[in-house]
Amino acid sequence: MQRYLSALARILLAQIFLLQIVMLIYGFFTNPNGYQEYQMGLGSLGLPGIFAPLIILINLVGGLALFFGYKTKFFAIFMAIYAVIISFLLKLPVLQYLAIAGGLLLLYLSPVTACSLDNLKK
């Protein structure tokens, strides 16, 4: 039972990053200038335009890796660090992203979960 609960926790943590991608892509398709507006929004926070595709790529790759349980230990620590950094850079709710990072750190400490690609290797 514990393995399945940790798999559920892994999937719920992954959905945070994947839903951000879905919302961004939806905004890009519904608004012809959506991507440029996203870049300008990041620019207003002092981030250069190169951060737009980089943020999208990290959310997509990290979210999918966590969702499928691929290299869970690495991506859990990577996404925890990313969540803290991005919360400060984008002036997001810091406590919320610290809580997400805490969940990812627990996943780092216990990366063996049911229904993951990491288990196929064994």
Q: What's this, in brief?
A:
The chain is mainly α and 122 residues long.
Number of helices: 6
Q: Tell the overall outline.
A: elongated
Task: State mean pLDDT (0 to 100 scale).
Answer: 92
Along the chain, the helix and strand elements come as: HHHHHH
The structural class is mainly alpha
Strand content: under 5%
Any idea how many domains?
Answer: 1
Low-confidence stretches: none
**Through-space gap between termini:** 20 Å
What Rg, in angstroms, do the CA atoms define?
A: 15 Å
Largest sheet: none
How many strand segments? 0
What's the helical proportion of residues?
over 70%
Task: Give a quick set of tags describing it.
single chain; mainly alpha; 122 residues
List the helices and strands and how they pair.
Elements: H1 2-30, H2 34-44, H3 51-68, H4 72-89, H5 94-109, H6 117-120
Helix pairs in contact: 1-3, 1-5, 3-4, 4-5
Molecular structure report:
The protein is an all-alpha fold and 122 residues long. The protein has one domain. The longest helix has 29 residues. The chain starts with a helix and ends with a helix. 21% of the residues are buried. The model has no long low-confidence stretch (mean pLDDT 92).
